[in-house]
Backbone:
């Protein structure tokens, strides 16, 4: 319940929060079908929110895997910073700074980037900037997984990655499109 209350507070006060509730457990499980946690060394999450995905990732990740989370909202950042797990690093900065913030050994070796940030709020150049940097941090065959409220990522993903698949997750408020784009090199 605390997460939902924080989400509502942030939705009311932060123009960059796109949803009134945290993601559903069904949505989390549906997106995670795209991740093989047994072979995943590095995960990056854009927009950790109240930690619904973050906590699920940490439960499924190997003990030697690493998770880097970007969260600009002050309330959500505080919640995420309270998660006590040595595998987790939380940045209170924009994903636009990802190339400067990720450790050198991680850049180009990320297995999956999962994003809940509202790309629909960004102009074309910002979308392409973030997606291009995302592709740079991914390993070859690494994937960008985004859950979004509309089909607005199709053209930017085609531009930045040259591919994507999508499926619809009805069991969430609001319902989400789940995008999967692969770094083909």
Residues:
């Amino acid at each position: 319940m605390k997460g939902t209350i924080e989400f509502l507070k942030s939705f009311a006060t932060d123009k960059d929060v796109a949803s009134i509730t945290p993601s559903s457990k069904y949505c989390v499980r549906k997106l995670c079908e795209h991740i093989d946690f047994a072979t995943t060394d590095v995960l990056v999450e854009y927009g950790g929110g109240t930690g619904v995905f973050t906590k699920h990732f940490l439960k499924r990740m190997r003990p030697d895997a690493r998770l880097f989370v970007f969260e600009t909202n002050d309330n959500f950042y505080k919640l995420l910073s309270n998660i006590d797990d040595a595998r987790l690093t939380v940045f209170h900065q924009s994903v636009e700074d990802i190339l400067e913030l990720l450790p050198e050994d991680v850049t180009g070796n990320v297995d999956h980037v999962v994003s809940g940030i509202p790309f629909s709020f960004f102009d074309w150049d910002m979308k392409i900037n973030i997606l291009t940097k995302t592709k740079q941090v991914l390993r070859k065959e690494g994937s960008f997984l985004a859950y979004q409220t509309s089909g607005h990522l199709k053209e930017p993903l085609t531009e930045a990655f040259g591919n994507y698949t999508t499926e619809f997750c009805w069991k969430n408020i609001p319902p989400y499109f789940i995008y999967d784009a692969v770094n083909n090199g």
Q: What stands out?
A: The longest strand covers residues 138-148. The first helix runs from residue 2 to 13.
